[in-house]
What does this fold into?
Amino acid sequence: MISAGDFRNGITIELEGNIYQIIEFQHVKPGKGAAFVRTKLKNIKSGGVVEKTFRPTEKCPQARIDRKDMQYLYSDGDLYYFMDVENYEQIALDKTTIGDTLKFVKENEMCKICSHNGNVFAVEPPLFVELQITETEPGFKGDTATGATKPATVETGATVMVPLFVEQDDVIKIDTRTGEYLSRV
It folds into this structure.
């Protein structure tokens, strides 16, 4: 149990049957009346954000989130297969659990599998990936004054906006959180 007076950013709590992560918190002491804690909570499973106020003495059970490194093996229809590299145990996750988090991840790359009480609710890809460009239009000389970009398709099938000087078959580094081009490799 954790009291509302001890809330910090990043802590996960169980509330009303859901698991929430504290995004923002603020201790408020009005001139008149009792103090309270104003929070922004993100539902870990659905991604929705709610605002809630607590009395500083209220207690909530703290949720324990397990993050385990697993290797992404392959996809077969709507199922995605992952393997624990320690004991070679495999699990299959469906597309609703995965979402679009694997659009920049190649087969055999390591991912973090997030679970609560044995129920997997999310997959975290590596922060940065290096992918080869399979298709892009050629850049034209003289178009670079405005920092223009063009769409490029990478080997996983995802589309990334890249600078005009990047050519087909170049290997680029991508930030998986934002989907942005970082550099050529």
Q: What stands out?
A: The mean pLDDT is 84.
